[in-house]
Amino acid sequence: MNKSVDLCYNPKSKKLWKYEIEDENFAAGCFGKIILAKDPNSNKQVVIKKIPKDYESSTEVVKEIEAGKKLKHKNISKFQEHFANRDFDYLVFDRVQGSDLFSLIEKRKFTPFTDSETRKIFKQILKAVRYAHKHDIVHRDIKLENILMDSQKKITLIDFGLCDIVKRGTQSERFCGSIDYVAPEVLLKKSYDGFTADCFSLGVVLYTLLFAEFPFVSKERVQALKAGLESPKPIFSETKIKKWNVSPLAKDLICKMLRTKPEGRITLEEVKNHPWLKKKTITLW
Hints:
- The chain has 10 helices and 13 strands.
- It is of the alpha+beta class and 285 residues long.
- It folds into 2 domains: 2-94, 2-Layer Sandwich (Phosphorylase Kinase, domain 1), CATH 3.30.200.20; 99-278, Transferase(Phosphotransferase), domain 1 (Orthogonal Bundle), CATH 1.10.510.
- α3 (115-134) packs antiparallel against α5 (194-211).
């Protein structure tokens, strides 16, 4: 339900429309800040994205609202509603407990997850992205910071603020995403297939979970592409493969997801059926 509210924020009662504010500066987002609040009707915590109204953000807000209404999946953050005043849009989501994967790797002092742990995490991420794609929604900002994991190891994909809603075979135009994760065709600032671009970003996530570092030196990759050279291949140190016990099947999958040319890149359906993901995961947690 969309609502236009003349006076959203009441500083005396610390209320934002019907929501009781618990932390006005809970986190920062791409276009605005994230507020932690409580819904008095359900007594549950919510997070509210506060986005300044301007020409640049207006289209993205509409897409994020549409995506939020369409996507009902256990591994995707649940959209509640949207309200607004003259200056800001407010998007309300269920609060997801847990930490983002980048913070978790930091807490582990950059010790990667094991092959078995990573498979369990990655399967959930893949389910969320495949579900979004089936609803014609490409995320366009898949990264560790946008993937949360709770104490029960449940994964939640968040922040569809840069998403696009397109049919298969339709190109996306906007350059967006995080430079360490985006596909080469996005860096070239040409029209691109958002579905295959998401697959590349997922490949970066998979590599980072297994090695606790990025597969490319971003500066070198950007310079090579600008010079018309081929994008560097992912770095695979044999020393680190042995140290972290990364399986040959995992390496094979990553290489297929990180192919420079999108037409040669593995599809998400092929990722789902790859032998590495078919291996049985022994729960050690």
